[in-house]
Backbone:
């Protein structure tokens, strides 16, 4: 099976790129399932019901979250009604769920959040071990993880801990794509997919507030620009019948220049 994963979708420019390119990418590459991270999809902070519909209509099948999952209050009922995840390592009793099984594809998608600079959550490594064992015990072959974390070291360590037991792990949250796409021990990996949204500013947000913050230490509200140079970034993983990753590619689209595979995974 082929799974497409789009990283952090940032605001309207990100949603626009998905509407423009995703239906044709899904069709041309014959993708079975598309996952994207929604936590910045509605003006950079959280997800509204309207924008969720827009993204599902553009052929996304399931969406993952992160530390910004809670920024729009209307997310709480949506977590029950729609195929939306929030990180699995929030404590018991927090609304929503951190994984979903798609029976017809023998696929499970897990959303986990890191420790470094993140809200106080349960240990992501212990949570990951626990859920992966449960899913394997249920006979799930294809296991995909969105690890929403700041530190590259955390993402690498998580992948190396799990690689013999999962199909692929891709990082989100930093918004900057890394060039380390690989297949190691039969599992696909990239430290960060990179954002889908504006590419000519600071992680998808207008640069004035971040620059002021770095110059003065004063706070300010980050804002998604109305107009910008946009990018779509996506990883396509192919899994065999045993749930091992056999192929992985990075796809990029810039503005209206069309989409292309920019590189293939190195096989270790
Ligand atoms: Fe995040």
Residues:
């Amino acid at each position: 099976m082929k799974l497409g994963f789009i990283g952090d979708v940032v605001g309207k420019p990100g949603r626009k790129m998905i509407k423009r390119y995703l239906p044709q990418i899904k069709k041309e590459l014959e993708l079975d399932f598309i996952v994207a991270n929604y936590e910045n999809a509605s003006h950079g902070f959280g997800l509204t019901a309207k924008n969720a519909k827009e993204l599902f209509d553009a052929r996304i099948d399931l969406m993952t979250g992160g530390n910004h999952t809670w920024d729009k209050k209307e997310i709480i009922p949506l977590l029950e009604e729609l195929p939306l995840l929030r990180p699995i390592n929030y404590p018991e009793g927090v609304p929503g769920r951190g994984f979903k099984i798609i029976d017809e594809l023998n696929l499970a998608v897990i959303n986990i959040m890191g420790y470094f600079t993140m809200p106080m959550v349960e240990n992501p490594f212990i949570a990951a071990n626990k859920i992966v064992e449960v899913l394997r015990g249920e006979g799930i072959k294809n296991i995909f993880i969105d690890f929403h974390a700041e530190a590259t070291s955390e993402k690498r360590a998580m992948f190396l801990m799990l690689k013999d037991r999962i199909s692929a792990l891709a990082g989100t949250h930093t918004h900057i794509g890394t060039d380390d796409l690989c297949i190691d021990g039969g599992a696909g990996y990239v430290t960060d997919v990179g954002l889908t949204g504006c590419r000519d500013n600071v992680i998808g947000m207008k640069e004035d507030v971040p620059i002021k913050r770095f110059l003065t230490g004063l706070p300010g509200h980050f804002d998604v620009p109305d107009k910008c140079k946009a990018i779509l970034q996506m990883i396509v993983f192919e899994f065999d019948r045993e749930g091992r990753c056999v192929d992985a590619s990075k796809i990029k689209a810039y503005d209206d220049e069309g989409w292309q595979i920019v590189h293939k995974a190195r096989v270790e």
